[in-house]
Amino acid sequence: MKRYIFILVVIVFTSCNDSKKAEAHNEKVVKKELRPFFDADKIDHYFVNYTLDSIIISGEKSKKSKKEKEFEDLFMGYFPDSVPKKDFEKILLSHNYKKSNLTLKQQKEIENVFSEKDSLQMSAYACVPEYRDIFIFRKKEKTVGIAKICFKCGRFQIIGSKLDTSGFGLWTELDKL
Question: Which PROSITE patterns does the record associate with it (predicted)?
């Protein structure tokens, strides 16, 4: 029995003496390069001043026109579900969306917000979205992506990105927009 205890004690001491302490390295942490959701050279921002209440009140008619249904899908729904082949800008303008003029600095800030993140968006949504703000990402005048944002509840729809957009939508990011 004494042999076993002696062998056990020797093993414990030798393993403790041979262990190496983790050395702390004073290396600078390299910030991960943000990969943008879209390969774009221009960003257009469109907005509309409607509210959900005004749309519901005006939409109480029993028969809605094709244009009214299209606007509801644009403002509250998932239209478009892919990058449109025809000029999406004309559709927005026909529904009274206004184009805002963005500076190059603003476009760069928007591109940084619409980029791949390590964080995860973990919130649930409790409202019907009001997509008042729509961003169109263009490359050589061709639409490569669309992002619809509801700043009221934080919902978003991003169309055309090949990257994972699930980390998008943190309130700190939306505040930058």
Answer: PROKAR_LIPOPROTEIN
